[in-house]
Amino acid sequence: MKWLALPLFALLSALPARAGDVAWEKTFAEAKVKAGLEGRLLFLDFYTDW
After folding, report:
1. How many structural domains does the chain have?
2. Given 3-state DSSP classes, what are the helix, strand and coil percentages for the chain, each rounded to the nearest 5?
């Protein structure tokens, strides 16, 4: 029975990650307006490949 615990735990821990999709906004202005209307915070993701 112990051999089943680890795969079952791995499967159940992965389910919440797939529960909702993230809808990214294309511009900062759109995101700011939408966040203001919904009363949410903004998440800014910066990327570089220096």
Report:
1. 1
2. 55, 0, 45
